[in-house]
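We were asked to recover a plausible sequence for a given structure. The inputs and outputs are reproduced exactly as logged, with field labels preserved.

PROBLEM: sequence recovery
POSITIONS: 121
GIVEN STRUCTURE:
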């Protein structure tokens, strides 16, 4: 099984092979409920958000879940917690790069969704 592992962890992009293994820990965190939304919200506007702003801007979430996800995103190196008069969170360089790569993905889904809704009228 290990001799074929290199085949299972690779994505082909033309002539280039990309190994998936290094991204699995991040994908596990990003795949959890509200992680991507939190990452997106923190990156909006000024790039810093406090806990209550994040909680307000993530629809249907709870303070317990947001708190847990913030810790996981911080441990994954995607956000940093900034202590001050008010605790805020901001994206790290890695967090900004990941967020930027997700934007075209969500824009494509939004466009497809709009195409389907207009044809269903």
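RECOVERED SEQUENCE:
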């Amino acid at each position: 099984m290990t001799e074929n592992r290199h085949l299972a962890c690779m994505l082909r992009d033309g002539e280039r092979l990309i190994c998936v293994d290094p991204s699995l820990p991040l994908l596990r965190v990003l795949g959890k409920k509200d992680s991507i939304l939190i990452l997106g919200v923190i990156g909006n506007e000024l790039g810093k958000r406090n806990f209550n702003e994040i909680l307000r801007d993530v629809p249907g979430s709870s303070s317990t879940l947001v708190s847990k996800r913030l810790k996981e995103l911080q441990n994954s190196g995607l956000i940093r917690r900034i202590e001050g008069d008010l605790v805020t969170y901001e994206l790290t360089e890695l967090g900004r790069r990941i967020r930027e790569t997700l934007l075209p993905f969500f824009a494509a889904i939004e466009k497809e969704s709009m195409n389907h809704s207009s044809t269903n009228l």
